[in-house]
Fold each of these.
Amino acid sequence: MLSRRIRHIFPVVVIVIALLGAALPLNAQGNTLIMARAIDATGIDPHTQTAFASLALLNMIYEPLVITNHNLEISPALAESWEFADDAMTLTFKLREGVKFHDGSDFTADDVIASYTRILDEATGAAARTNYVSIQSMEAPDPYTVIFHLSTPDVPLLTAMTSINAAILPSELIENGDPTTTAIGTGPFKLDSWVPEEVTRLSANPDWWGEGPFVDGVEIRIIPDEASILAALRAGTIDFAMMNDPLVATLLIDDPNIKLARTPALDYHVLQLRAAVEPLDKLEVRQAISCAIDRQEVVDSAALGEGRVTGPLTMPAFALPTSELFCYEKDLEKARELLASVGLQDGFTLPVMVANAEPPTALSEAQSIQAQLAEINIKVEIEPLELSVYVDRWLAADFTACVALNGGRTDPYTMYARYWQYGARFEQVAGYVDDELDSLMKQGQRETDPAKRLEIFHELERQLTEKSPWIWLYAGYKYTAYQPYVKGWEPIANDALYFLYEVSLER
Amino acid sequence: MLRYLVNRIIAFIPTLLGVSILVFLAIRMVPGDQITAMLGTEAGMLTQAQRAALEEYFGLDKPIVEQYFSWLGNALRGNLGYSVRHGEEVTKLILNHFPVTLELAFLSVAIALIIGLPIGIMAAIRHNSLLDLFGRIISMLGLSVPNFLLGTLIIYVLSVVFGILPNSGNYVDFHEDPVLNLQQLIFPAFAMGFSFAASVMRMTRSSMLEVLGDDYVRTARAKGLRERSVVLVHALRNALIPVVTLIGVEIGYLLGGAFIVEQIFSLPGIGRLAVGAISQRNYALIQGVTLFVALNFVVINLVVDVIYAAIDPRISYDRKA
C-alpha cells in the first residue's frame, strides 16, 4: 500500500527536482554591461525630467555644454572653452567641432540656441527653467561660437549649465520631432529601446567625440526590490548595480566577490523647521533643537553610520569643517538654558512630518531625533505620510517640521537660491529669510572672484547654522556595486552614469 | 442554463460600472497627480504657465465629470486610454502583461494542488497519524508565512547558497525559451502557491473527513469496493466541491496580479504594472487595470458556479417549475 503511494508521488518529485536542477547559472556574458537598479526613469525628455533615476539614464545619452568631472569641477563637454565677461553679464562658449548627433547630423551653435530656447519656453514645462532665467538673449557669430547675454550678473549659471536639464538636443528634433518620445543626443551611448519599468537598452555610440565607450552597450534592468538586486549580484546574473538603501548596500561591505563603491553624496538629510510657526519663530528654540541633537547619533542609528555629518554646504570645495559651525557638538546644558530663556523649560510638542521610505532612513532619523529631543522636554510627534501626500504638504508649506532629503548641487547658489532669499520660490517652505541671508545670496550670484565667493558662502554657512532655520544632519553615500571584472568604474557624487564610457569588462 | 448565464452576464454591468466610478474618484481624491509624481518637490519650481502646459499634456485640465464620461465612452469602445509614461495604449499594456500573471497564477494553483490535494487526502484517510500531524504542521506554516517572506527566502537561498537566480529583471516569454521561462516562474509560483497549498490541504482534509463518515461511503465499502476506489471515486468527488470554490476565489485574486511577488521577483505582470501606475498616479492605467481585474473576478466566479453544476449533479441552474 505504502509503496504504491510512493510510486504515485515519485513522478511529481522527479519533475520538481528536474526543474530545480535545470535552473543552471545564467551568468551575464558578452561585452554588454548588464546593470540593475530599483527605480526607472520617468521619461526621456532631458529638459523636463527631474528625478535622479531619469537624469542618471539621460546623461548617458545627452550632453550639456559643460559637465562636472570626477573632482566636481566644471570641465568641457560640447563646449571646449568658455569665458565670463568681467561684469558677469555675458558668457561666451567655443563649441567642439566635428561632433555628431546620434542621427548623424552635425552639432552646431543652432542646436545650442534651439535647446536653450526650448528650456526657457514656459510651454515646455522645464522645472529647472528658473536656473536659466537670467539668459536674456543668445547669438551665434559663427557655427561654433555661442554668446549668452544675461539680464543680471549670474556666475552660478555656468554650474547650472552642467545639469543634464540643459542638454543640447538637435534643433531638427525640437522643431519637427518630439523629444518626449525620441532620444537623439551626442552622448557616449545611444538609446535603442526603453520599456518602462522593465528594461532599457543602450548601445555604444561609435562616433562619440571622446575616448570610449569600451563596452558594446548597456542593458539597464529594473529590479524593484533592492534585496533582489543584491541577490542578482551574488548570483552573477548582473554586472553592475545602483543602490540607494544603505541598509542593503552595506551588506556587501564584507563580500569578497562583489565590489562596492561609495561616493559621498551632495544631497543632504535635514530636519526642516518652519520658523514661521510658533514657537519655532524664536531663535532660542531653534538653537536649542540644534544643540540638543547629536548628528552623529542620527547617522549611526538611522543609517548604520553610512554618512558624514554636514553643514548646509555639502560640496567639499565650499564646506567649512563642522567644528566651526554652531552647536555641532551636542550641548544639552546650553539647549536647556536656551529654552529656559524663553520660558519653555517644560518643553512643547513638535509635529514632524516624514515620508514613508523616502529616503529609506527617514523614519529612523525622525525616531532618533524624537529620542534626543525628549531630553530637553520637546515631545516630537512623528507623522508618517505617503510620499505624494508629503510632497503636496511640503510644497504648500503645510507643516511645522519635517525630515527631508534635499538635492545638493556643486554650487551653493544653485543649491539654495530657491530657499534663502526674498521672493525665492520656496521661501514659504523654507520658513525663514532675513536681510543678511538675502544679501549674501545676491553677492554670491554676482561675484566672479572665486576667493571672494568662497568667503561669501562660508559666511552664509555660518549664519545658516547659527540662525538654525533648519537643522542640517548629514549627507549619505551613493552606492554602486559591481563584479570584480568590471574595470575602470569611478563613481561620482552626482550619480552620473555618463562615466560608464570609461568602463570595460574583463570577464 | 443559458438564461442563467445571460442573467449573470447582465449583472456584470452594474458591478463594473460601480468599480470604475469608485476607482475613478478614489485615485483623484488621493493627493498628488502625475505632475508631482514625476517631478516630486521640483513641481514647486514650475510657473503657472508651465503647470498648465503639463496638465494639458497629461489630460488633467478638464473637469472630473467630463474626464469620466470621455473615459467611459472610450472604454465601451474597448479603448481604455493612453499611458503617456509608456507611450502605449492601456489595453495593449494590459494584454502584454497579462500572460505573465496568467501563467504565474496557473502554475501556483498547480503547485498548490500537487502539494495540497494528496497530503490532504492522505491526512484524512490516516486521521491522527504521523502523516496527518506532518500535514497540519505544513499547513500551519503555509498559512502563517507571508509570501513576501517566503519569496525573499527563496531568492536568498538560490543566490547565496546555490549561486543561481533565474530571475533578474530579464523575463523571457514561454514561446521564446520555455525552459528558462519555467525556471523563472517556478520559484515565484511556489512562493505564492505554498500558502494556497496549505488552505487546499486543510480544506481537502476536513471535507474528506466529513464525507468519509457519510452513509454512502459506508455502503460503497459494504459492497466490497476496494478502498482505493471508495476514496478516489466516491468520496473525493463530493469532497472537492468546497475545494473548487476555494480555487475559484484564489484564481480571481491571482489574476489581479501578485503585487508583492511580482515585485520581489521582478516579473512584468499585471501586479507590477499596477504598482507602478499607482506610484506614478497614472490615472488611465490604474483605471484600466482595475477594470480588467474586476472583469476577471466576476468571470471567474461565474466559471466556478458553472463548474459546480458539472461536479455536483444536485446543483442545477435550470429553473424547473
Amino acid sequence: MDREVNPGMSPDRTDSRPLLDVRDLDVAYEVSGSSWRRTTTTVVKGVSFHIDAGETYGLVGESGSGKSTTGRAILRLAEVAGGTIEFDGTDLATLGERTPLSYRRDVQAVYQDPAGSLNPRHHVGRAVTDALKRHGTGDRAERQDRAREAFAQVGLTDAHLSRFPSEMSGGQLQRVAIARALVLEPRLVICDEAVSALDLSTQSQIINLLMDLQQASGVSYLFITHDLGVVRHMAHRLGVLRKGELIEQGDTSAVFADPQHEYTRSLLAASPSSHPEGREQRRADRLARRRGAAQASEGAGGTAASASPTAPAAAASSPARPATADMRQAGPTRPMVARPEGRA
Amino acid sequence: MGKLVLYRLGFALPQLLVVSVIVFSLTYLVPGSPAAAILGISATPESIAQVEAQLGLDRPAPERFVEWFGGLLHGDLGTAYRSGLPVTDMLAQRLPATLSMIFGGLLVAIVVGVGVGVITGTRPGTTTDRVLTGGTVFGIAIPEFWLGMILTTVFAAWLGWLPIVGWVPFSENPLLWARGLILPSLTLGLTGGAIIARQTRAAMVKSLASPYTDTLAAAGVPRWKILYRYGVKNAMVPVLAATGVTFAIMIGVSFVIEKVFSFPGLGSLMLTSVIGQDFPLVQGVVLLTATLVIAVNLLIDIGYGLINPQARPA
Amino acid sequence: MTVSTVGPAAATTPAAKQAAGPRQAWRRLRHQPLTLAAILTVALIVVIAVFAPVLAPYAPDDTDFSNVLSGPTAAHPLGTDDLGHDVLSQLIFAARTALLVAGGSVLVAMLIGVPFGLILGYKGGWYDRLGSRVMDLADAFPGIMIGFVVIAILGRGVWILIFAIGLIFSMNFGRMVRAITLAERKKLYVESAHVSGLRNRQIIFGQVLPNLAGPLAVQAAVFLGNAIKVEAALSFLALGLPDDQPSWGGMLRTAAEHQVDHPLMALPPGIAIVVTVLAFNLLGDGINDALSGARSTRKARKASRKAARLAASTLAEVEQARLDAEAREQVPSTRDDAPVPVASSVATREALVTTAAHPEPVLSVRGVSIVADRPDGEVVPLVSDVSLTVGRGEVLGLLGESGSGKSMLAKSILGLLPPGVRVDSGSVTLAGDELVGRDERGMRAIRGKKLGVVFQNPQANLSPVHTVGHQLVDPLRVHHGMSKAAARDRAAELLDMVGVKDAAGRLSQYPYQFSGGMAQRVAIAIALAGEPDVLILDEATSALDVTTQSQVLDLVLDLRESLGMAVVNITHDLGVAAESCDRVAILYHGELLEVNDVFSLFENPHHPYTAALLAAHPTADREVDRLPTLADFVTADGEWIVR
C-alpha cells in the first residue's frame, strides 16, 4: 500500500511544478590546511531531485555521503558551487546575499541534536516566540497564544513553555524544535537525522508526530537519515547518496522491492533487520558479495575494497540456536510496483 | 621531518620581516624628535636640524628602511644616538648574560613545572595535589624581582652560600658561571615553573580522562604505564605550548631582575635606551628579542609535529 | 604575568545540565570557601584604597627627616624609608595606585581586545585571517617589552602606564573572545536562529555575548592581578609612575637600594603585592569553577572518597570529574514522555526468564546490584538484581535503551566502575574466579587475559599520539612476556586476523590514518591480544555506518567460531541483536525484564516492554501504517498492559 501524498492547503499552484527542484547541485567545502593554502573538496556532486507539496522525500546515505550538506545548501547555510536549487519556481541564486524573510518562513529545519538546537540560556518557549517576533506576528499576547497552540500541537503543555532545555528530555526537546519549525507554517521542513539521537521508544512517537503534522498541514519534508527502517516508514520517495552522488532514487516501495544499484543492495543487505529469521542466509550473501568484490578488484589490480575476514564459511550454525526455526521469507511481502521515474 | 622544518620556517621568516617593519616604524610614532631629546635644553631649530641630518633622520622613510634593513642583513643595526657605539656590538656584549639566565631559568622551569604537573595530574584531589597546586598558585602571584631579592638576602647575604654579585662569563670560569646562575635561574624558574605546572596538570588530567585509558586498562596494560607512557605523551602538546609562552615571558622578566642580581644583560641596555629615547638601541633590543621568541616558537612547532602525527604537513 | 588557563573550555564545557546559568553559578560560588575568602580580601583592599586618606596615619608626602630608615617604632609601625616617609602610609596609598592602574589597564585591554575578537570571530574570512596574523605577531613580543616600547615612545606618566599595560593584555582578551565567538558561531542553536530568520545583530547580542560574560569576568579578574605585577615591575625600574606617587614597585625599588643594611624593608610591599595578586587569581579561578561546575564541595569530595575506597576501580580516581557527571546521567530519568511503569509489576521474574542457564557458563552474573552514592548521601540504584550467564562460543545480547544500566553492568564486570558507583551485592564469576571485590592487581590479572572489551567510539579509544603497533605490542608483552620483535610479529598476525590488509605495514601508522571501521577492528585486535575467554562489546558498532557495522559484526561472529570465545554484545539496537546474538537479555531501568533465545524472543516476547520495543521499531524489511509507541503498552496509571 503506497502512502498517499497530501498536497495540503497550499494556495493555487501549478500542479506540475514541484515545491523544491534541485538540479545538478554541487557543493564544495574549503578544507584549510594552512591559512594560505586552501583546498576545496566537492562534497555534493551533480545531485538532482525534486520534492512535491505534501510529500516526504527521504535522502539516505552513510556518513560522508553529503546528505547533510545538501540540506544545508537548501537552507542557504552552505554555498552552492554549481547547479541550481529552485524553491517554488524561484532560483535561490537570485535571492542575493541576504536571505529574504519569506524564505526563512517557508523553509525550516529540525536537527539531530535537540538540546543543541536550543539556546541553553533561554526558556524553550522563547525559541518559538523569537521566531514569531522576527516574522512580525502581532503583539506579545498573540505570540504567546500562537506559541501555546504550537506546543499543544506537538503534545507539550503550557507549563513546558517556561522550562529550560536542561530541564527537559530529548524527546520533549525535539518536540519543541518541531513546534518552532512549524509555527511559521513553512512549506518545506528539512529534517536532518531528526530522530537518530532519540531512544527507540521516543523515536516512534516523534515519527508519528511528524507524519500527523504532515497530514494536517500538507507540509513537505526532506528527511535526511542513514536509517533505512525509518526512511521506509516515512518517505514517499527516496534517493540514495553515495560519496556525494545520487546513485538511485524512486518511490520508496519500489526501491526497497527492487534496488537497482549495487550500493543500494549492499546497504539493504547490511541493514539490521527486524527479525533473526533468515540471518544465516543474509550473512552468507554478504560474505559472497564481499568475496566477489574482492576478487573483482584484485583481478583488476587494485586493493580490495573491503577487508574479508580470514575465517571459515559463515554458513556454520551457532551452537545455542534452537532447531525449530522455520525459514520464513525474509524479504518484502508486497508486490513490486513499477517505478514512474525509471532512473537508477 | 625535513618537510616539517621547511614548512615552519616558511612561516617564521615572513613573521620576522613584518616584525622588522614594525620595529622600524616605531621611531615614527614618537612625538617630537630624538634630536631634540639628545640636545636637551640647549636645542635650537638649527642645531636640531643639524643633528637630524647627522643622524640621517631627514631622509624619506622607505629609503631609510631599505638602508636599515640592508644593514640588518649584514649584522649592522646602526649606531646608538647617545653612546655613538654600534648597536650590534652593544647587544653582543650583553647577550651572553641574558641568554645564560634564560637558559638556566628555562631549565628549572621545565624540570620543576613538568615534574610537579605530572605528579599532581596523576593524582588529582589528593593531599599531595592540593599542597603542590597551592604552591603553584602562590608561584604565579609572586613578583619575580621580589623573589630574587628575598633569595639573595637569604642565600647570599645571610647564609653566604652564594655570591651576591653573580655574573662570571662562561669563558672565564665555567664553574663560577654556573654558581652565579643559581639564584637567577631559581628566581626565573620558580615562577615560570608555576605556569608550566598548572598547564601540565590540566593537560594530564584531560589526557587521562580520555577513553583510550579504558581500552588500555581493559587490555590489561598496567596502570603506571598508562599514566606515564600514554598519559604524558598525550599531554605534551599543551605543555609545549605553555613552554613557548613561558619563554617569551621569561625574557621580559629577565630584563627586570637583572637589577637584583647585577647581571650585565640586555635588560639594563633596554632600560637606558628607553629612558634616553635612544631608538636605534631600542629597535635593536626589540628586534633581537622578537627573533629569539620566533626562533623558540619555531622549535616548539617542530616539536608539535614530532609528537602529534596529525600536526605534520600532509 | 600569568598565562591564563581560562580559555574557550570554560564556555564550551559539555553537558548543558552542568553548565551554569548565572543562578546556578552564584549558588555554587557560595559553597566555595576559598573563593569567598578571595572576594573578601579583594573587598578589603578596595576599601583600604578608597579610604586611604582616612586610614593612613600620615599623608603620602609627609616626610620626617629625623627618622630616616628606621625600623618598626611606635610612631611608624612598619618603619620609614630613606626619605622619612612612613612605610605603612605609603603601603596604603600605594594600594590606591595599584588598583587604579590595574583597573584602568584592564579596561583599556578589554576596550581594544573585545571588539577585535568579536569581529574576527563573527565575521571570519579575511578579517579573521588577517586579525589572527596580527595576534600572532603580538606574541613575538614579550609583554613587558611592549610596555617598554610604549614608554620609550610616549614617556612616563600614569595614563601612559595604563595605556601601555592595557596594550600588553589586549591581545589576550582578543584571543579569548575570538575563540569563544568562533565556538558559539558554530553551535547548532546559532544556526537554528539563522534558519528562523533572526538577524546577525540579534544573534550576536542575544546568543553570543551572554556566553562571553562569564569568561570575560574570569579573565578580567586574573589580569587585574597580572596588571598589578606588571605595574610593580615597571615602577621598580623607575619607568612607571612618577616618583612622588607611592607605589609598591617603587617601594621595592627603595628597598633594593638598601637591601644590604635594611633587608626587611622589602617585606611589606612584597607581601602586599602577593596577597593582592593571589586574591585576584583565586577570584578568577573561583568564578571559572563556579561557571563550569567543576569544583565539588567538601561534602561531595568526602562522599566520593568513601565510595572510591570501597569500589574496586583505581584508574577511575583519575577520572573523577568526568565520570561523576556520567554516573549522574546514568540515573534513570523520570522526565520521559510516557509514564514509567515498574518493570516487575507483571508476573514474577522467573516466569520471564525462560531459557535455562547455559550448562557450562563461562561468565556468570548472579544477583548483581549496582548503586551510585550521590554527593548528598542518597544512594541511587542503577542496576537491580541482574542474573545472566554466557556460555562458551555463545553470543549474548544485552539490549537496553539509554539509562538501562547496561554499560554500568559491563564496567562492573571489568572492575572499571567510576568513583561513587559500586557493586552493592551479587557475584560475577568468570571461569570459576570471583570478580566482585577484587583489588586492582587481581583485576589486572583478569583484564585482557580472561576478559576483552571493545568500547563505542573507535577513534577516541586509541591513543592518538602512539602508533597502532605500539598499542598492540604493550598488551601482548604484558600478557605473554614476549620480546619486542616477537610481539610485533604477533601484532601483525592479530591485525591480519581482524581483516586489516597489509597488517605489518599498518603497524607503524597512527589511529587517525584508519577509518572508523578499521579503527574498531584495531580495537578488537587489542582486545584479543591476551586471548580472553570472554569478549565484551560495549555499543561497539553504534558509531559506525550500517555497512561497516555489518562487516564488524560478521567479523566478531567469525572470530567467535574460530576462537570459541563467549561474547557479550551490549547494544540499544534491536536489529543488531537480531542479526548477531544467540540469546538476548532485555534491560530496562536497571532491571532484567526477560532473557530468551533470540528467535523465541522476537517471535514471542514475554514482557510487554519487549513487545512494545519490537513493535515500535521501524525496519527496512517491513512496512507498518503507524508505529505503536511505548505509551500504547502502558495504562494511564503506569501499569504495563499484558497482551
Amino acid sequence: MGAPGEGVVDVHSPVAEKVVELATARKDILRIATAGSVDDGKSTLIGRLLYDSKAVFEDQYEAVARASKGDFVDLALLTDGLRAEREQGITIDVAYRYFSTPRRTFILADTPGHVQYTRNMVTGASTADLAIVLVDARKGLLEQSRRHAFLASLLRVPHLVVAVNKMDLVDWSEEVFERISDEFGAFAAKLNVPDLTVVPISALHGDNVVSHSPNTPWYEGPTLLHHLEHVHVASDRNLTDARFPVQYVIRPQSDAFHDYRGYAGTVGSGVLRTGDEVQVLPSGLTTTIAGIDGPRGPVDEAFAPMSVTVRLADDLDVSRGDLICRPDNAPQVTQDLDALVCWMADEPLRPRQRLAVKHTTRSVRAVVKDVTYRLDVNTLHREPEAGELGLNDIGRVRLRTTQPLFVDDYLRNRVTGRFILVDEATNATVGAGMLTPAG
Amino acid sequence: MTSPDYRLTQLETLEAESIHVIREVAAELERPVLLFSGGKDSIVMLELARKAFAPARIPFPVMHVDTGLNFPEVLEFRDKRVAELGVELVVASVPDAIAAGTVKEEPNGSRNRIQTPVLLDAVEEHGFTALFGGARRDEDKARAKERLFSFRDEFGQWDPKNQRPELWDLYNGRIHLGESIRVFPLSNWTELDIWQYIARERIAIPPLYLAQEREVVERQGMLYAVNQFIRPRDGEPVFRETVRYRTVGDANLTAAVRSQAVTVEEVIAEIAVTRMTERGATRGDDKVSDAAMEDRKKEGYF
C-alpha cells in the first residue's frame, strides 16, 4: 500500500478511517526502559513488541527475514543498529524504539545488559516511567537481574515489570515461574519498588506478550502489552511542590514588545498559576505571576513537563539558574550535597576531587568531601571502607559546592533531586547523582 | 493546552521536550545554528525554535547545505520562511565547493556524501559550536542510537561506542575549541507525530508534500518526477501520475509515491495505513548497505 509500484491507499475506506482514528487518537506517552543479561532475549522481545504492534514496516521486516539464519525470522535483528553489534551479537548502546497502540504511545529505551555498560542502563532508566527486567526462566535471577532492578529502583522508575522469558524452554512450568517470582519479590522488598508485576512469556513465540497464551492456563495476570497500555502513571508525578528553574530570559527589545521580560523554562513539578504569589531563589524576593505564555499563547496554569515563559509582576533581577517556587514551599538552599552517585568514568571518584555539577539549569563546581560508602548492588551491603568509587560503582558521596543549589530529596522530587557530574578536563559526563536526606 | 487532569498528550509532551532542548542549547552554547533544508522535519524544528523564544526572535542563524540539486519549490519556501522570521540565513554551497576543488563530484551523481566536508568547512568558517538537526530516531537503526546532544570531535566525527551518558534532561554541552555538539530536538518524534503536528499547528509546507499530477519515469520500481535534474532517458516511457513526496532530498535522487492526498489530513491518513518507512521507500542513496547511515554519520554527516 502506498509503495511506488503498488496501488494507492484509499484513505476514505471504512477500514482506513478506523486505522486513522486509532493512529491519531489523543494519547499519552509511556517511557519504558528494558534491561536484561546477554541472551535473555531482550532484543527478541522488543522485536516482538514492535512487530506485533505493527511498528515494523514491510521493508524492515524483509531485510530482517533475509538476514535471519535459522528457521524463523530473527526479530532481534530489528533492534541491532551498529555494525559491531551485528558482528558480535551484542547491544552496545541505548537504542530508542517507538511504537504505539490505540491506547498509548511508547518510547522504549533498549539498554545493554553487560556490566561494562551500566552507564547506558542509567541513561535509559533516568527518563523511564516503567522498567522491564528480563529473566531467563532456565537460569533464574542472575547478578545482572538484581543489578538492573536495583538501578531502576535507585532512579525511582515508578513501575517495574519482570518478564520471565523462555518459558517454552522450561515446559511452561508454573513452579519455575513461581520460584522466580518469589525470589524476585524477596529481593524487591529490600528495594524501594512501589509497583512490581511479573509476567511469564516467550518472546520468541509471542506467548503473553500481546495475547494470552494457551500454554499458561495457570497465569491469570495481564499480558505484557496490556500491562504497558494500562499501567496507571498519572499519580507518579509531583503536582504539589511548584519548582520552576529559569532556563532562559526572553527580552525581545522590539517595538511591539518593548517591556516584555519573560522567564522561560520547563516546569519541574507542581502547578504554577497566573496570580500566584511566588518567591525567586536565591534572592528570596517575592512577587506574583503576571502571566504565563505557552507555545500557543497565554495559559492560566502550567504543570510539569510544560515548557512555558513566566512573566512576573515586579521587575526583579532574575537570571538562568534561579528558581521560582511558592514562598511557603521552597526547596532547601544548600552548598552541601549528600547523594547516591553512579560513577561512570574509568578513573575512580575520590575525596578532594573537583568536578563540575549541573543541577536543573544551574552549573556550579564542587569538591568531593567524602565517599561515605560503596554499595554492593547484589547484597545491598554498604562498604564504608571502600573510600572511592570505580567505574559502574554506586555509593554515597558528600559534595561541597561553590554556590548554593536549590534541592529536594530525589525521593520526593525527581527534578530538583538529581544532578550530573562532569569532568572539567575532558568534559565527559562522569556521574549521576540522586540526593538523599543527610545523616 | 491545559487539561483538568494535568496530563499532556503525546504531541504536547514532544513539543515541550523539544522546546526545552532548544532553549538549553541557546543558553549554554556560544554559537548555535539550525540546519534548515525546507524539508518537513526542519520546518517543524524551526517552528519549535520560534515558539521557544517568542515573542523574541530566534537568537541564532539557520544554515542550508545547498547541494545545488534542490527542488525550486523548496528553495522558494526556504527563503520565504527565513524572511518571515527575520533570521539570518547561511548557505553552505556544494557547487561552490566543487568549483573551488575542495570536493569532487561522485560518479553516481549523489552529493549526499560530499555534503559532509562542505558542512564541516562552513561550521569551521563561522565558528558554530552547536548544530541543530531535524533527524528522528525512528528513521534509521544508527539514528536510534544517537543522543539528543551528540558530541562531535574536531573532525565532526561521531563515536557511537563512546557517547556521553545522557541523564534525565541534564544535557552536557561542554566542548573544547574546535569540537561541536549536534543537537536533535526531534529525536523522539515519529513521522506520524511530525505530520500530526503540522496539521494541528497549521504549519506551512512546500507544495511537493501534497499529491499532484506530474510527469514521471519509473526506475528500479521507484517513480521519479521529470524535472530539471531528471530527464527521460532514450526510449524511457514518461507517463502522468498523481504523486507526492514523502521526503524532499536532492531533486535528482528523490522519488515520489503514488498518492491521492491533497491535504495534510489525507497525508496523515495515508501514512497511518502505509507500511513502508519513508527513507526505504524514496531515498535511493540510503539503500547502499545496511550500515550506510552509520558510516556517513561517523564521517560527520547528520
Amino acid sequence: MKLSRRRRQRVLRVAGYVVFGLAILAVVAAADWGRLSDAFFRSDVARSMFPEAITVALRNTILYTLLAFVFGLTLGLVLALMRLSSILPYRWFATAYIELFRGLPALLVLFMVGYGVPLAFPDREIPGGVYGSVTVGLGLTAAAYMAETLRAGIQAVPKGQLEAARTLGMSHPRAMVSIVLPQAFRIVIPPLTNEIILLTKDTSLVYVLGVTSTTIELTKFAGDALNTRVNPTPLVVAGLLYLVITLPLSQLVRGLERRAAKER
Amino acid sequence: MSTIEIAGLHKSFGRLEVLRGIDLAVEPGEVVCVIGPSGSGKSTLLRCVNLLEEPTAGTIRVAGVEVTDPDCDIDAVRRGIGMVFQQFNLFGHLTVRENVTIAQRRVLKRSRAEATRIATENLARVGLAEKADAYPAQLSGGQQQRVAIARALAMDPQLMLFDEPTSALDPELVGEVLAVMRGLAAEGMTMLVVTHEMAFAREVASRVVFMDGGVIVEQGPPATVFGNPAEERTREFLHRVLEPTRVSATEIGAPES
C-alpha cells in the first residue's frame, strides 16, 4: 500500500509518541521501586528534617542569595557605569575587575574573603559575621557578571532616548536615572533572574566558611542529615526546596517580560 | 534680536566635512524649511543648534545666548528649544502622559498637578487627550509623533526644531503630523524644519533654505525658491523631487532606451 506524503508524516508523528511512551514504561517497569523509595523517599527521614529545613536552612539560603544579589547588583551597576564612562582610568578599572572576578572560581573568592582577608587583617573583621562574609564573598563574583549584563542593557537602549531626554533640558545623570536605566533594567530582567538562580545555587558553597546550626543553608543541612540518618532522602528534600525558590522566579520573569512587551 | 543666529558654522566628522561655512538667521515667528538632498548636512545643521552635535568652528546664538560658548549652560538653553525627531524617540517605559510630564517635573520642577494640567492641554492641542494612559508602543507612528510634539510644547519653548518629522511615517499618517505643525506655525511659533515635504514647505514656510554639499545654495520665499530658483543645483533637485516620474534615463547617466 502506498501512503500519501501527508499520511506518511502523520504515521511518523504517531510513532514518535508511541516510542516515547514505551521508553517511559520500560524505565518504570525496570525500576526497583521498593529500594528507590526506601533510599530517596523515606517519609520518616523527611519528616525529621522539618521544620528546621524551612525555618533555618531555606530561610538562610534565600537570605544569602538576596544579600549577595543586592551587593552584586549595586557594585555591578557602578562597574557598568564606570565601563561606559568617558574617563579612561574608570574604564580600565572596571574592565580589569570584571576580567579578574569572572575568571576566578566563586569558591576561591569565598575562601579569600572568609579566611584570607581575616588572616591578613586580624584586627579588623567584615561586619555581620558569616552573613557579611557571604554577602561580600559571593557578591564580588556576582558583580562582575551583572556589570556585563547591565552594560549590555544600557547599550541596548536606543541612543535617541538619551538625545530626546537631553533635548528636554535634562542633565546627563538625570537622563540616565529617569530614562535610560529604567529601560535598561527592563531589558536585563531575564538575564538578571538567571543571575539570581545561579547565586541561589552558589550559596551551597557557604559551608566552607564554617556555618553553625543557625547560619546553616540547604545543601549543608541536607548533607548533615544524610550523615546522621545514613539515608539520601534529605538530598531529595533539599532539591525540592531549591525548586521552591527557583520555579517561582522563572514564573516571575515570564510575567515581567509580558508586561515589558506591552510597554515597548 | 534673532531667535537663531548662525555664523561661519563648520562641522566635521573625522575627515568628512559635513558643514562648510553656514550663515543663517531665523527671526521670531519665522518658519524656515531646510530642504536638500540626503547627506547635504541639513540634519547636522539642525542638531548643531541645540548642540546635539558640537560644531567644529563658528558661532551659534539662540535668543542672544551663544550656545557655542564653552561657559554656556546648555541644559538651560535646551529647555527653551523643543526638538522633534524623525524616529519620535518617545520614552517607551512611560505612558503618554508621563512622557509629557517627566521633563516638566524633573527639569522645570513643576508640581504634579500643574504638569498634568499642562500635559492634558498640549495633548488636546495635538488631538490625543484620550490617549494619555496608553504606552507609545500602542500608538501609530503619526500618533507617536504628535505626542512627541506635545512633549516638546509642554516645556514652553520659544523655538521648535523638526528633524524630518514625517520621514519615518506611513504615507497616510503624514497629514496628521503636518496639520499639527501647520497649526503651530499659524500660532506664531518660530520653527526650523528639515523636511522632504515640499508641499508643506511651499505652503507654510516663510522662507525656504536649499542646502547641498554642506553649504546653503540659495534661500528665499517659497514662491521664489520653488517657482523661479536662481541656482541650477536647486532646479535639478526640485525637478527630481517634484517630478520623479519625469527623470529621464540620460540624466542619471544610463543609456537612453
